[in-house]
Amino acid sequence: MDAKEFKQRYYPFHPRLYRVAYALLNHTEDAEDILQEAYCKLWLKRDELTGIRQPEAFCVTLVKNLCMDFLRASGDRKGREPEKRPAIPFEVTPESELESREQVKHIESLIDRLPEKQRIVIQMRGFGDCSLEEIETATGESAANVRVLLSRARKTLREMLQKP
């Protein structure tokens, strides 16, 4: 496989792969590093990839595995702040912007307290804008289990938000 064919076959998956990596790592530079590593691995094995029937699913699984390896190698990453996600207030006033930021921080802290699988699924769905099929492929969970994890995560978050 030459470079042109490689680009045509694998670069269209880039936005989806980035969303998966970002949802799992919650950090732009780390997600970009993982994608670079994934493309390097794909390029080095390009001649062995011709028999893959579902290259997109293969790439999502590769990125997921690289992210999981990265998270295991870096421990719990307590010293590193997750990136702040932008809040979009209805009326932009200093007070409403501050309130929105505080609400986002609060929700992010609640998400961080969820069990790992629920946290990953809710981040991929909510912040990574991944479809259920993408989440299923990335996590290795069945479609039914992904829906259950999402439902439980949302229920737990609602309960946490209702507590004073």
List keywords for this structure.
164 residues; mainly alpha; 8 helices; 70% helix; 0% strand; elongated
Topology summary:
Elements: H1 3-10, H2 14-25, H3 28-44, H4 55-73, H5 94-112, H6 116-126, H7 132-139, H8 143-162
Helix pairs in contact: 2-3, 2-4, 2-6, 3-4, 4-7, 6-8
Number of strands: 0
Sketch the topology as an H/E string, one letter per element.
HHHHHHHH
Radius of gyration: 18 Å
Helix amount, in percent? 55-70%
Query: What would you call the structural class?
Result: mainly alpha
Instruction: Sketch the major β-sheet.
Output: none
Span of the ends, CA to CA: 59 Å
User: What kind of assembly state do the chains in view correspond to?
Assistant: single chain
Count of helical regions:
8
Give the integer mean of the pLDDT values: 81
* Strand content bin: under 5%
Which overall shape is indicated by the principal axes computed on the Cα atoms? elongated
| Uncertain stretches | 86-90
Summarize the structure.
70% of the residues lie in helices and 0% in strands. With 164 residues, the chain is mainly alpha-helical.
Structure description:
The chain is mainly alpha-helical and 164 residues long. Helix content is 70%, strand content 0%. The protein has helices spanning 3-10, 14-25, 28-44, 55-73, 94-112, 116-126, 132-139, 143-162. Helix 2 (14-25) crosses helix 3 (28-44), helix 4 (55-73) crosses helix 7 (132-139) and helix 6 (116-126) packs across helix 8 (143-162). It is elongated.
